[in-house]
Amino acid sequence: MLEEIERGLASLADRPVQLIWGMRDWCFRPECLNRFLTVFPDAEVHRLTDAGHYVIEDAYEEIIPRVEAFLMAHPLS
């Protein structure tokens, strides 16, 4: 199932993408981020050095303003 999802990512390559990545994640390691970047080379990327797998819990104060700014810059049309 994950392979099928990964194959479908290219269909979203023309959309704005923001990736907020916990660099201390034990499951989705930095190598996973690099794979996303092959599909989304123009993605807005934020590497959070002190955040882990629960990135939202680890860095809530840093993430919310970044997501809000991204959504303001890329409104739904």
| Major beta sheet, strand line-up | 1-2
Q: Could you spell the SSE succession in H and E letters?
A: HEHEHH
Largest sheet: 2 strands, parallel
Radius of gyration: 13 Å
Euclidean distance between termini CA atoms: 30 Å
Shape: flat
Percentage of residues assigned to helices = 40-55%
Helix- and strand-based class? alpha+beta
Mean of residue pLDDT values: 94
Question: What is the strand tally?
Answer: 2
Low-confidence stretches: none
Strand content bin: 5-15%
What would you note in describing this structure?
The chain is an alpha+beta fold and 77 residues long. It has four helices and two strands, in the order H-E-H-E-H-H. It has helices at 2-8, 30-39, 55-58, 60-73; strands at residues 18-22, 44-48. Strands 1-2 form a two-stranded parallel ribbon. The chain is flat and about 30 Å long. It starts with a helix and ends with a helix. The model has no long low-confidence stretch (mean pLDDT 94).
Helix-strand blueprint:
Layout: H1 2-8, E1 18-22, H2 30-39, E2 44-48, H3 55-58, H4 60-73
Parallel strand pairs: 1-2
